Amino acid sequence: MTQSAPPARTLKDIARLAGVSPGTVSRALAGKSVVNAETRARIEALAAEHNFQINQMARRLRAQRTGVIGVAIPLGHERRQRLSDPFFMSLLGHLADELAARDHDVMLSRIIPDDDDWLSRITRSGMVDGVLLIGQSDQLPVIEAVAETYLPLVVWGSTMPGQHHCAVGVDNRLGGRMAGEHLIATGRRRIAFMGEVRTLELAQRHAGLCEAMADAGLPPPQQLDVALAPELMPDQIAGNLARMKQAGQGIDAIVAASDMIALATMAALVAAGQSVPGDVAVTGFDDLPLAERAIPRLTTIRQDLEAGARAMVEALFARLDGTAAPGLEMPPRLIVRDSA
User: In CATH, what number is assigned to the domain containing residue 315?
Assistant: First the structure.
């Protein structure tokens, strides 16, 4: 009776059976194009026959890579904001898809900055190969300082003149201007901005609205602070509207700093007996899936989160390979629906 050959357990075993070197086996199973198709197919068939899989942890240790990308959301501007915010979840989902396609895992962190070393601790931890930040918050000096010495860092946010760190995002100032110009073109003249301006992105949206109104010979918009925490947002919006009414400061349009603020604003207006867009037109910013399902459907400024996530990951992996890939400022799009 002939004894069957023992199963292949190591790279050397597969290499012996295939008649190639262990290095060729490693490259073939990693999908490297330097191994010709016939040899790669033979090695893959042997690996499948023997149920052989490369020890990914050992491979990563040899390559001095963890296979993990850190995704952090800094909330220095609003400590009560949640990861479940639909904007965060939308962008995070696209980032996770892009990283999974490159066989990388995600380590997610919600950061409440309590000192200036929070980002350095992430980059020096040895737990991640690179870092993606969702938002600049009020942490620009910290991000700039780390970016001077840490290459694989890419940030979702705004790009400013002289900026050192790599940022991918939409032209927020132009988006704010487009919202204002649309409202003015439809006959609105008494426009307010609903949202705080402590973060760079939201401040730029407000600045763009101010430019549009100044160009039209209109006074600056009322700027009304609103918390980004969902449990606080409705009451603060209702309070802002009530105070303006009591002060005799009637408005006929609101540019909201985000879609979520816009949706809460429309609900507050209706609760106060005003119609949208009849009495007050409302625009948002982001074009989240909720915007099209709202009643009325929300007119908003679209930033392409899927394309942005792809650009962030492409820039990050170029930087992991040692290339200082530039950031990207994407054009916003005005999506006209029913609310304005």
Answer: 3.40.50.2300
Residue 90 has pLDDT above 80, yes or no: yes
pLDDT band at 61 (very low <50, low <70, confident <90, very high): very low
**In whole angstroms, what is the distance from residue 253 CA to residue 209 CA?**
12
Domain identity same for 140 and 252? no
Instruction: Enter the tokens of residue 109.
Output: 């962190």
User: What is the tens place of the pLDDT at every residue in 28-53?
Assistant: 877 666 788 888 889 888 888 887 66
| Pairwise CA distance, residues 136 & 5, whole Å | 59
Kindly tell me the sign of the dihedral angle through the C-alpha atoms of 162, 166, 170, 172: negative
pLDDT value at residue 71: 95
- Tally: H helices and E strands in the chain: 13, 12
pLDDT above 60 (res 62): no
Give the domain range for residue 130.
68-170+305-330
What are the beta bridge partners of residue 224?
194
DSSP state string for 310-340: HHHHHHHHHHHTT-----EEEPPEEE--S--
Q: Is residue 61 part of a domain?
A: no
- Listed range (22-31, 48-57, 206-215, 267-276) with the worst mean pLDDT: 48-57
Kindly report the backbone phi and psi dihedral angles of residue 74, in degrees, each rounded to the nearest multiple of 5, phi listed first.
-80, 135
Rounded to whole angstroms, how far apart are CA atoms 195 and 265? 10
